[in-house]
């Protein structure tokens, strides 16, 4: 499992870990966004909470995550869970299902950088690739013209999400203290280095 505040680099680190170890990268955020995009009941409910910068209730997310973790590829290759659990109750729901990580990675990034990274983040709706207007701009004008900003990537909403993150992270640390790896990260040119 990997945890950190919004825009702390979880997805980037997951892609590097996935490439090195062949694990299945499972992003709770991507699962939620897929449910929203397809207009499922879970997606509609989740969108209401996300638009307010609040955590989506456990009962909505737990079943989505459980279902994905039980798919054959995750069972065969192993998994890297990104952005979940985010609260004590979510972690306990996974524990109840017998789902526990071998390693829990916690990324620690300064708040001012997190806000800057979120507000500048853009999504290519055709490819799903994430760009940043300053740190990772699109390759050409055609791509730039179709980029969109996720509805929850505003300064106001990211500050609410950061408050929620800090309220919840200590309880996760206490649950996973026997398998935790903490990382203080430095930034150079917008890229994370350890």
Automatic annotation (TrEMBL):
Superkingdom of this protein's organism: Eukaryota
CDD domains cross-referenced by the UniProt entry: ADK
Record carries keyword Plastid: yes
UniProt subcellular location: Plastid, Chloroplast
Enzyme Commission designation: 2.7.4.3
Main location, first listed in the record: plastid
Gene3D superfamilies: P-loop containing nucleotide triphosphate hydrolases (3.40.50.300)
PROSITE patterns named in the record: ADENYLATE_KINASE
Top EC category: transferase
A GO MF label: ATP binding
Gene Ontology CC, one term: chloroplast
UniProt entry keywords in alphabetical sequence: ATP-binding, Chloroplast, Kinase, Nucleotide-binding, Plastid, Transferase
Catalytic activity annotation: AMP + ATP = 2 ADP
Pfam families from the UniProt entry: ADK
Function comment: Catalyzes the reversible transfer of the terminal phosphate group between ATP and AMP. Plays an important role in cellular energy homeostasis and in adenine nucleotide metabolism.
Family, similarity comment: Belongs to the adenylate kinase family.
Official protein name in the record: adenylate kinase
Originating species: Aegilops tauschii subsp. strangulata (Goatgrass)
């Amino acid at each position: 499992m990997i945890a950190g505040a919004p825009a702390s680099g979880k997805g980037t680190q997951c892609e590097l870990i996935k490439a090195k170890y062949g694990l299945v990268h499972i992003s709770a955020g991507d699962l939620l966004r897929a449910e929203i995009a397809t207009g499922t009941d879970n997606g509609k409910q989740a969108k209401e909470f996300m638009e307010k910068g609040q955590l989506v209730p456990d009962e909505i997310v737990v079943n989505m995550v459980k279902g994905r973790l039980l798919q054959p590829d995750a069972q065969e290759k192993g998994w890297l869970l990104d952005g979940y659990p985010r609260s004590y109750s979510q972690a306990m729901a996974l524990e109840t299902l017998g789902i526990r990580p071998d390693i829990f990675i916690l990324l620690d990034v300064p708040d001012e950088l997190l806000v800057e990274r979120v507000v500048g983040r853009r999504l290519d709706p055709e490819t799903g690739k994430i760009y940043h207007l300053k740190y990772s701009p699109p390759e050409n004008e055609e791509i730039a013209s179709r980029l969109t900003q996720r509805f929850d990537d505003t300064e106001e909403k990211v500050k609410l999400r950061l408050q929620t993150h800090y309220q919840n992270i200590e309880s996760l640390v206490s649950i996973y203290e026997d398998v935790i790896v903490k990382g203080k990260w430095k930034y150079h040119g917008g890229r994370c280095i350890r």
